[in-house]
Amino acid sequence: MATKESLVKFAYSLSSSKKYKSFKRDVWEVLEDLDSLKKRKFDFFMIILVLVTIFIMIYEIKHYVPPYIYAIEIIAIIVFIIEWLGRFWVSSDFHQMIIQKYEQTQLRSKKSSTWVLLKGALIKKLGFVFSPMSIIDLLAILPFYRPLRILRFFLLFRLFKIFRYTQNMNFLFKVFVEKKFEFVTLIILFSFLVFFASTIIYVFEGSGENDNINSFYDAIYWAVVTITTVGYGDISPSTSEGRFATMLLIISGLGILAFTTSIVTTAMTEKLEQIKENNILTQASKLKDFVLICGYGKMGMVFAEEFKEAKENFVIVDIDSEAIFKANEKNYLALRQDASDPQALEELNIKNNAKYVLAMTNDDALNLSIILSVKSIAPNLDIIARANAAQSKKKFKIAGASRVLFPYEMASIATIEYLSQPSAYSAINIILQEKLKPIADEVEIFLDEKTSTQVIKKELIDSFGLKLLGVAKKGDAKEFIFNSKKSEIVVENLDVLILIGHSDDIASFKNALIKG
């Protein structure tokens, strides 16, 4: 009883220790966090260490190695052991599993022994110990014990350790795991053909007709060499039956090779595409203040071009592989994913890193799903949605879209403006598209908590060669003060000045405002 109480008390003390959690988190980051710079540096160090120890052990076979060189081997083994212990430690939260089991038994008013509390946690840890990569790590340590020369065979397992430190190699290794059924089928077929052919050749030529076949092992060797189309020629059939079996085996071997090539090629293509998508996803998730463009149709293409010109960070998401292919051709960050899938949006970390979302697909139902998914993850994130039908505009607003674009309505308004005032429309359009040096830009006002208002003199704006179109109160276009005649403009926090001028002059004006 005392042992159980001590165990539970110890588990709770670890659970409440901030230093313990922080240290374990740091160790996990170095060993397991794929996005961590610390892990990349550690992986590089381990690859170099593995290669150096392998070189030493190969070199010493026919050369004299000074004793001090073995210090590197000792250091490497210590590092390998510490690494394995670290992975064993972070593989699961031993204390949390004990606490969870203890609380479950208390809740159900059941008696619990020390073994009951430890059982689940120990099984979890043993699962790690007997995992393939853990076994490779342990076998990689064995070659250090030189008195057992046979253990040098396990030197090869140090090479396998490199798979752990290279993420892309890990992905490729998983090809064989994911295609397990196909490869098992292939191995069974290969084994059957080898056994069948070796039996035939041994029956017809193993009783003295062929001097090179003295045992069933020789027949198996001949069958393997033949079916793989290597054909060393050291064992050749001498009877008609043996030659006939050889022809069938060669034809079967070609079929197996074709089958193998097909499996590997298909799996590699799928996995390489997945690796590419994972790399893009990693890049996208690290972006700050990016715009998420959902749908790379006509409007999505226009927005992407504009953001590229403005040097804005943006990510394109579309379910259509052809659209993603077109986006990748222009070197955009583009992912083939369903933008209405909350999990896909969470992987992009839109809650913390996205500036706003554009729902620009040609399907109103999909755009509505995107709006709802985004709002479920980031309720305060601004969403601009495209409505392909007039009746969808109200639905989008109710769902949470900040603004709704209706292309046909916008095109009609622009056409009317052009017909009524063609010269003014063309001039403003050229300026907005930045085809002339002057541009229209926004300058947002940021004030500290102690300052409620700021006074900006018109002459300051004029001194930079800028023209003030107006002020959008709190950034809301509905509360727009157009072309104020006052010599002094009183602005509040988050007000937006709309200015026309050269980009350099606007940048200088922003700096002047910041400096006060």
Structural summary, described in words:
- The chain is α/β, with parallel strands linked by helices and 516 residues long.
- The protein folds into four domains: 2-165, no CATH class; 180-271, Helix Hairpins, CATH 1.10.287.70; 287-410, 3-Layer(aba) Sandwich (Rossmann fold), CATH 3.40.50; 436-515, Alpha-Beta Plaits (2-Layer Sandwich), CATH 3.30.70.1450.
- It is built from 22 helices and twelve strands.
- The strands form three sheets. Strands 3-2-1-4-5-6 form a six-stranded parallel β-sheet, sandwiched between helices.
- Strand 9 and strand 10 form a beta hairpin.
- Helix 17 (364-377) runs parallel beside helix 18 (392-399) and helix 19 (407-420) crosses helix 20.
- The longest helix is centred in the middle third of the chain and has 47 residues, at 240-286.
- The protein starts with a helix and ends with a helix.
- 19% of the residues are buried.
- Biggest sheet strand order reads 3-2-1-4-5-6
Shape: elongated
Number of strands: 12
How many structural domains does the protein architecture include? 4
Low-confidence residue ranges: none
How does the major sheet shape up? Answer: 6 strands, parallel
Kindly state the percentage of residues in helix. 55-70%
Q: First CA to last CA: what distance?
A: 71 Å
Radius of gyration: 35 Å
Report strand %: 5-15%
Number of helical stretches of at least 4 residues: 22
**Would you tell me the structural class of the helices and strands?**
alpha/beta
> What value does the average pLDDT take?
79
